[in-house]
Each structure stands twice: as structure tokens, then as C-alpha cells.
Write a structure and sequence with these properties.
Helix content is 39%, strand content 14%. The chain has helices at residues 3-14, 26-35, 41-54, 58-63, 66-73, 80-94, 104-107, 115-126, 135-145, 154-167, 173-186, 205-208, 275-278, 339-348; strands at 225-236, 240-245, 256-257, 260-262, 286-290, 296-299, 303-314, 325-328. Strands 1, 4, 5, 6 and 7 form a 5-stranded mixed beta sheet that branches. Strands 3-2-8 form a 3-stranded antiparallel beta sheet, with no helix packed on it. A hairpin with a 3-residue loop joins strand 6 and strand 7 (303-314).
Length: 351
């Protein structure tokens, strides 16, 4: 049986029931694909359901404030996805009158939509025969055909894309694309796949050459950067605290945090010399205590954040200047924050 037909047959018998598989609505498919970028299905599914509930149509999403979108996204990471999601919703609602582009090439013009996402939407919603190539697909193709070209190299990207085009099922593009992705997720798993019970085992090069654990090949990741964060958690009369919104193009743009000092040579005895402190406290009537003796290590894809929280108790505030924002303790939960801070807020303020 043809490669693609084997996968489709397997898929129809083994696929997981997902809400986005019961529709061809491009808004729903687009939303699910953006959420599932860099995210496992088990983690992404509740977020998908929350977004559909809060924003049933692309018009609803477009009308939302960015902070609302970021708050609903909180915990998924890679927050540029949420900002791009909102920007694209506004564009589709206002400029395209709510109508999604219906071709692969036109979908690529949407912010936050790359080759994989455009291929998925075009094939599932509009039956266009364009192959998806994600981590699951790379793994299936690399193992079945015994290809050791690094999947994250320029040569590898071109080679696997060309192979995916060659294998594309032009009769059933939606089913085939979903089949090969699901096969990689459930059957041809990264670790210890069940090769004995596999519909492709009779032609799998990696299995015959005993290279299952060696494929696919991926070039080493870039060096992880260490950063040292020191958060000043002002605790005003047991009722208020201070937050500020992150700007610029770094991590967590648009999210909120406590006043931050980033330094590898921070000295708690010199805390009053920092502007982040002087902007809030101008007298000596304060008490400062580290929340923990050791830093919390928060790991991002290319950065490890060594983070300390300092509880600064003051009776009253001086005149607060922007970007500082005074909020009630009970309201701090309403603001979108990184997971690192969400965990701290839950552990400290909910005591």
C-alpha cells in the first residue's frame, strides 16, 4: 500500500478526538495551530477551549484588549504568539472583513503564520495539497527513509520539504497531513517507539539499521545565556504592591512584573542606591527581606533566569512615577504575568 494511504488508514483507526478536528472553520484551525506551536496537545487543549469560549469568532478576538489576550494566554509561554494572534485577528476582522485567506501563499502573509501553519490551514480548511512539516513529520520521514541530514540545517529543511511534497496525498491532503502529524505524536514517538506494532515497520530504514534512537539528527542548540533577576516586591500596608509593564522587544513584552533590577553583582545592602528603589521609597522607613535564600531558576529555551524576590515592607508610598503602577493585592491576579511571577504571586500573596 502507498505510504500516504497507510498513514491515513492508521489515522482513521487511531486518531485522538480533538475539537478542532470536528470543524473546517479556519478561525478554529488557525487558533489551534498557533496554540499548539511549541506546546503539547494536553497543555494546549484547555487554552484552546478557553479562547473559543471567550472569543467565539475572529471579530470577538479582534475587539479584545491585548492585555485580555495575554492574560488568557498566561502560562503557555512564547508570548509573541499571543501578540501576533491578536494583531492578525484585528487585520482579518477589519481589513479582510472576517474572511481568512484561502491559499497557502496568501496565508503566509498573516503575522505569526509560517510555512507549517499556512500548510495546515490551507490543507485542512481549503483542501489545498501542501504538506506540513513539523517536528513529528521530521521524525517520521527521517526514520522511515534513514535520513541523517540535520533537521534544523538549511540543507535539511529543503531536503525534508522536498520529500514531503513528493509524498503528499493530493486526493486527501487534510487527512494525510493530520495523519502524519498524529503518527509522529502517538506511534513514532521521540523515545522508545513501539516499532513492533507499526504499520510502516516493513519499510523503515531506521528500524532495519537499528538507528531509531539516532534519528532524526539535530544540530546542537545555541549556548544558553544566564541572566540574574532581582525583583523588588513592595508590600504597602499589607494591601498594595507595585507592578510595571515590560516594554521593548525582549522576553515577556506586554506582560507585567514587579520593579526589576537585572545584575549579576547585586548587593542587597546597596538596594537603596538603585533607581527602581528610589522611585518608590525616598525615606529609610522600610524593611527588606529576601523571600528565599536561594534563587529560583526559571528555564526558557535560550535563557536561564536566576531570580531573587525581595519583600520590601513600607507603611506608605511617596509619589509614584510611571511606569510604576500601584495595585491592590487582590487585583494583582488580574494582570497578565510570566509563569515565573505567577508562581511567586500564588505562593506569597495567597498565604
Amino acid at each position: 500500500m502507498k505510504f500516504s494511504k497507510k498513514l491515513i488508514t492508521w489515522y482513521l483507526q487511531n486518531k485522538r478526538e480533538m475539537p478542532w478536528r470536528k470543524t473546517q472553520n479556519p478561525y478554529h484551525i488557525w487558533l489551534s495551530e498557533i496554540i499548539l506551536q511549541q506546546t503539547r496537545v494536553a497543555q494546549g487543549l484547555p487554552y484552546y477551549m478557553s479562547f473559543i469560549s471567550a472569543f467565539p469568532t475572529v471579530f470577538d478576538l479582534a475587539k479584545a484588549k491585548e492585555e485580555e489576550v495575554l492574560k488568557l494566554w498566561q502560562g503557555l509561554g512564547y508570548y509573541s504568539r499571543a501578540r501576533n494572534l491578536h494583531t492578525t485577528a484585528i487585520y482579518i476582522a477589519n481589513d479582510l472583513k472576517g474572511v481568512f485567506p484561502n491559499t497557502y501563499k496568501d496565508l503566509l502573509h498573516l503575522k505569526g503564520v509560517g510555512d507549517y501553519t499556512a500548510s495546515a490551514i490551507a490543507s485542512i480548511c481549503f483542501k489545498e495539497a501542501v504538506p506540513v512539516v513539523d517536528g513529528n513529520v521530521y521524525r517520521v520521514l527521517s526514520r522511515f527513509f534513514g535520513i541523517d541530514t540535520p533537521i534544523n540545517s538549511t540543507k535539511g529543511v529543503k531536503q525534508f520539504k522536498a520529500l514531503a511534497v513528493e509524498l503528499m496525498d493530493y486526493d486527501e491532503p487534510a487527512e494525510y497531513n493530520q495523519a502524519i502529524m498524529e503518527f509522529g505524536a502517538l506511534q513514532c514517538k521521540p523515545k522508545s517507539p513501539n516499532c513492533n506494532d507499526c504499520v510502516l515497520n516493513d519499510g523503515c530504514e531506521a528500524l532495519s539499521q537499528r538507528k531509531i534512537e539516532l534519528l532524526p539528527v539535530k544540530l546542537k542548540k545555541i549556548t544558553v545565556k544566564k541572566r540574574y533577576f532581582h525583583y523588588l516586591v513592595f508590600y504597602v500596608g499589607d494591601a498594595q504592591t507595585i507592578i510595571r509593564q515590560r516594554k521593548g522587544n525582549g522576553i515577556w513584552k506586554g506582560l507585567y512584573e514587579f520593579p526589576l533590577i537585572e545584575s549579576s553583582k547585586f548587593d542587597i545592602n546597596e538596594i537603596s542606591s538603585y533607581n527602581e528603589f528610589k522611585e518608590v521609597v525616598s525615606n529609610k522607613d522600610y524593611e527588606i527581606v529576601p523571600y528565599k535564600d536561594e534563587p529560583v531558576i526559571h528555564k526558557l529555551s535560550h535563557q536561564h533566569l536566576y531570580t531573587m524576590f525581595y519583600i520590601i515592607r513600607v507603611k506608605a508610598l511617596d509619589k509614584i512615577k510611571e511606569p510604576n503602577k500601584v495595585v491592590c493585592i487582590d487585583d494583582v491576579y488580574k494582570y497578565p504575568v510570566p509563569t515565573l511571577l505567577s508562581n511567586f504571586i500564588d505562593s506569597f500573596f495567597k498565604k
